[in-house]
Amino acid sequence: MSMTPGQDSALKARFGPAALITGASDGIGRAFAGRLAEQGFDLILVARREAALQDLALDLGERFGVRVTVVALDLSQAGAVSDLLTRPETAQIGLVVAAAGYGSIGTFLQQDLAQEAGMVDLNCRSVVELVHGTGRRMADRGRGGIIVFSSLVGFSGAPLSATYAATKGFVQSFAEGIAPELRQRGVDVLSVAPGPVGTGFAARAGMQMGRSASPDTVARAALSALGRRGTVRPGGLAKLLGWSLAMLPRQGRVRVLGAIMKGMTARDAASRG
């Protein structure tokens, strides 16, 4: 849907006036920022890279006439979410997109422990803190929307990406558990479980993705599903892989995902060699 700058949308009427997006400087978070600005939301953009956020804020503000607030924070750090939610701009949040996260690939014992623990903090703890803080405010108002991110690998263990898959399994279970509770208070919860997505996430994790969905495909599918479904798998490949894996017993899924991850690491080693 294309809209003129400043034009309100049904999405904003239901979940506005402001949206908070974490991980907004790149990839999926950035795609959500563009989509929501187009639909008239004021935005609070959160990520570590302030310069990238400022550039994005300037662009979206000029194109769509919305108010954009930039908050440079590392949400993996203790107290970061609490600091974020004390800002006066967050009082009007009606929609949260918790897109911040990262992964790793390779055998667990070869990974840097601080990076693995930081992944748990960012992918899990910060999501719980953010949903708790914003969810209470939305529930008190009787309306709101929360989008969190699981993954295709979040439905079983994934050798060579064990910590990442576990964090996404946590998010999936968390979303499924809180959705019925918050629905009774007028708040919709959606878990987005994409397969490979063409973002900077893959480069940080050391993955060679091959065929992948675009960040905009993920954003469009999620916003369309919010309030209608509990989990969405954006893109044809995610749907195909999700259906195929669901037909297998859990241990079979683990073996298949291990083979997929092994293929990614093999392509990565070949590209470096």
UniProtKB/TrEMBL annotation:
Primary subcellular site in the record, as a coarse category: endoplasmic reticulum
Entry's localization field: Endoplasmic reticulum
Keyword flag ATP-binding: no
Entry keyword set: Oxidoreductase
Classification via Pfam families: adh_short
GO function terms (MF aspect): oxidoreductase activity
InterPro entries: NAD(P)-bd_dom_sf, Sc_DH/Rdtase_CS, SDR_fam, VLCFA-Steroid_DH
Keyword NADP: no
Similarity field: Belongs to the short-chain dehydrogenases/reductases (SDR) family.
Identification of the protein by name: Short-subunit dehydrogenase
Provenance organism: Roseicyclus mahoneyensis
